[in-house]
Amino acid sequence: xxxxxxxxxxxxxxxxxxxxxxxxxxxxxxxxxxxxxxxxxxxxxxxxxxxxxxxxxxxxxxxxxxxxxxxxxxxxxxxxxxxxxxxxxxxxxxxxxxxxxxxxxxxxxxxxxxxxxxxxxxx
Length: 123
Description:
Layout: H1 6-16, E1 20-22, H2 24-32, E2 38-41, H3 45-50, E3 57-58, H4 64-71, E4 79-82, H5 87-98, E5 104-107, H6 110-116
Parallel strand pairs: 1-5, 2-3, 2-4, 4-5
Helix pairs in contact: 1-5
C-alpha cells in the first residue's frame, strides 16, 4: 500500500466505514460471470490512459459527482468503483451514497491488486 498523508488516510478510513467493498477477486468473478454492473475507474486521466480494467468506463474522482447522474441516471444501478489502491474509490463511493445511489461498491486493492494477480488490462 502506498504511503499517504496521515489526514488523507484518516479521511479514507472514515469513508470506508460507510461504504461496501468488494475484493479484486469478487470483481473479477462478477466480470467472468458477465454480471451486469457499471465498472467505473475514478483515477486521473493519465492513469486511465496508461491502462484500465476491461469493461470499465472513466469518471475521474474530480468529476464523478458532477457527471454521474448524466452517465448513470438510475440511483439503484449496481456500480463498482476502483482506483489505484481503494482509497479514492472509497471516497467517491461515500459521496455517491450521499447523493442517493444505493448500490455502490468500492474495489479494495484497486488496480494495483488487479495487476498483482495478473488479470487482464486494457492498454
